[in-house]
Specification:
The complex is a heterodimer. By secondary structure, chain A is α+β, with helices and mostly antiparallel strands. Chain A contains 17 helices and 19 strands. Chain A has 4 domains: about 100 residues, Uridine Diphospho-n-acetylenolpyruvylglucosamine Reductase, domain 2 (2-Layer Sandwich); about 120 residues, 2-Layer Sandwich (Uridine Diphospho-n-acetylenolpyruvylglucosamine Reductase, domain 3), CATH 3.30.465.10; about 110 residues, Alpha-Beta Plaits (2-Layer Sandwich), CATH 3.30.70.2190; about 100 residues, Alpha-Beta Plaits, CATH 3.30.70. In chain A, strands 12, 13, 14, 15, 16, 17, 18 and 19 form an 8-stranded antiparallel beta sheet that branches. In chain A, α1 runs antiparallel to α3, α8 crosses α10 and α14 packs antiparallel against α15. By secondary structure, chain B is mainly alpha-helical. Chain B has a single domain, classed as Alpha-helical ferredoxin (Fumarate Reductase Iron-sulfur Protein, Chain B, domain 2), CATH 1.10.1060.10. Helix content of chain B is about 45%, strand content about 0%. Chain B is globular, with a radius of gyration of 13 Å. The chains are: A alpha+beta, B mainly alpha. The interface between A and B is large, with 40 and 34 residues. The structure holds flavin-adenine dinucleotide and iron/sulfur cluster (SF4) (2 copies). The site of flavin-adenine dinucleotide (FAD) has 34 residues of chain A, from β3, α5 and β10. One iron/sulfur cluster binds next to α2 and α4 of chain B.
Amino acid sequence: MIPDNIQINQYKISNSSYFRVIFVKNIVKALKKIVGKNNVLTDELILALYSKNAIGSSGKALCVVFPENSTHISEIVRLCYKENIKIYPQGSATELSGSSTPHDGIVMSFSKMNKIEEINIVDGYVCVQPGVRIHELNDVLSEYGYMFPVDPASGKSATIGGAINTGAGGLRGARYGTMTDWVLGLEVVIPDENGTLLKLGNNTLKCRQGYDLVRLIVGSEGTLAIVTRAFLKITPAPENIVVVTSFFNSPEDAMKAIGEIKKRRMLPAMMEFIDEDVVRMGKEIIDVKTEGEGHMLIVGQECPPELAEKCAEKLVNIMKGADATYIDFALSESEAENKGLINLRRAFYPLAINLGSKEFGESITLVLIEDFVVPVSKLPEAVRIVKEAGKKYGFMVLTGGHVGDGNLHPMIWTDVENKEMMEKAEKFYLEIMERIIEIGGSISAEHGIGEMKREGLKLELRKRGSEKALDIMKQIKEVWDPKSILNPNKVV
Amino acid sequence: MSLEFVLKEVSRCSFCGFCEHVCPTLVRYTRHFGPRGRIQTILFALKNNLATEKSIEGLYTCLTCNACRIQCPGDIKIAEVVREFRNSLRRGEVDIDEKVLKEVR
Ligand SMILES: Cc1cc2nc3c(=O)[nH]c(=O)nc-3n(C[C@H](O)[C@H](O)[C@H](O)COP(=O)(O)OP(=O)(O)OC[C@H]3O[C@@H](n4cnc5c(N)ncnc54)[C@H](O)[C@@H]3O)c2cc1C
Ligand code: SF4
Ligand code: SF4
């Protein structure tokens, strides 16, 4: 129960530091009564560690609280609603849009709510707490020959709560879609005066429960409700995967190959692209034996082992038809690992860190990964747009992405301590956002809007003549969070 | 090895957290007991002059087992960095509040 004897409000009238200290002290005292004294931390270093994210934004938190169950969460919300205290839900803080950054409120971490509560193969779902990391879930599911197929490149750290709220996607997106397609039901606490717990959707594979509030929460970036438990659909893990890597003289040729794969009615689990710069420089930092040069396409097609040779042959022929300059293949995932076929794709992010560090030395290097989606046929144009803009603003841009679904991640590196460079980076991204919208794309495929892309969202809706949609979104926020205490000033 | 080496290594940390899931000291604890937290702790100490008792607690509970290193996309030599930073603290090369340091000495 919330301790009613604690008078917090009276101190809020003044902003003077004395009253503020007492105000914070009292909040902390009240929170400790709810979750126990070890589950509220106020150490300055800990606050700093929980106020950052993977794009170097840093905010300010009053304290970090570690609820252990949904009752704790409900009571915390009640307290915060009464006292107008902001709550910032946080998984692993690997988001790339500023959606988890706290500003003068409490950070709610789910690292103590990290249990897989149920695995139900027959009914086809798992029930998990929000702090479970995606890789952990897949490790456990692999025992049953099953998987949760949404696999962001950050799966080792990304939590289910974070992935639901960013609407994450991943390498297998072309075949398996994004989080939207795999959440069956959610238990959430909404930011009202009672910290009401709602069960939305169900653990069944179908459910038509009026307006689809489950899918409204997916991708809502912690602005509407706090996810306390999730029912996720699972699927059998493929028996075998054939991997083909090919190199092309131009993104257009790679595109020809993707088009042909689709025409031949194949639906690979993975279609990853990296540009010629990543290939060239990636070879310098990792040990890959390939002789291929130019733009690289990696295709991973699920198929039973007995059909693997036929499947590989079909893919190799498609690549030849698209004028691939070099082709290699493996009949299984383990063979692909042995041959290092995916290593260059894996080097995409490390390469940027490496190049940034070389350039900026002891300054803090920031790798900025963008997240556009365009119609698949427009990918070559999108690659050209970002490369040209990079030249204009003086950035080397590396591009790679989950091209099976048109998702491209242009990446640059900056020196956080260089204000001018950071401003240039912002201009660079605004310009490419505009161009990407013009060719029919969207500014975010899977990372979300957060704080960084609010202007981009406005721009996109304006260009589509749909500004009214933004008003509707604002009204939705107000209905769920009337006092705007839950992750405010994000998304809309 | 030197503080210069330490600073160069920690400046590369992108806060991706890929290193955390293998760390034996992070289990059910807070971020400062894991590799990401430790690298950032050192960064905060060197760049922002921020060090607290929790900084020391986090750094001195590292087993320097190296399990995290292979996970790091920046190839940061996490265990070596922690060890070297602890040595620098002992040698008094880092400007940190005496109160915070008393447990180390
Ligand atoms: C190197 C790298 C690669 C990446 N690759 C991909 C990729 O391939 N695909 C992709 O989609 N993303 C990718 N990302 C982005 C990011 O990792 C994902 O969006 C991930 O799902 C975020 O999970 P998290 O636990 O870190 O969440 P956080 O960053 O902590 O939070 C993300 C959002 O969710 C909210 N939130 C978290 N938990 C809850 C909860 N229980 N209830 C309510 N709100 C909550 C937060 O407030 C925030 O708005 C990548 C990031 C990095 C650093
Ligand atoms: S070296 Fe230290 S930080 Fe790395 S895994 Fe071992 S205990 Fe954790
Ligand atoms: S894996 Fe490396 S770059 Fe990522 S958080 Fe850990 S130390 Fe930093």
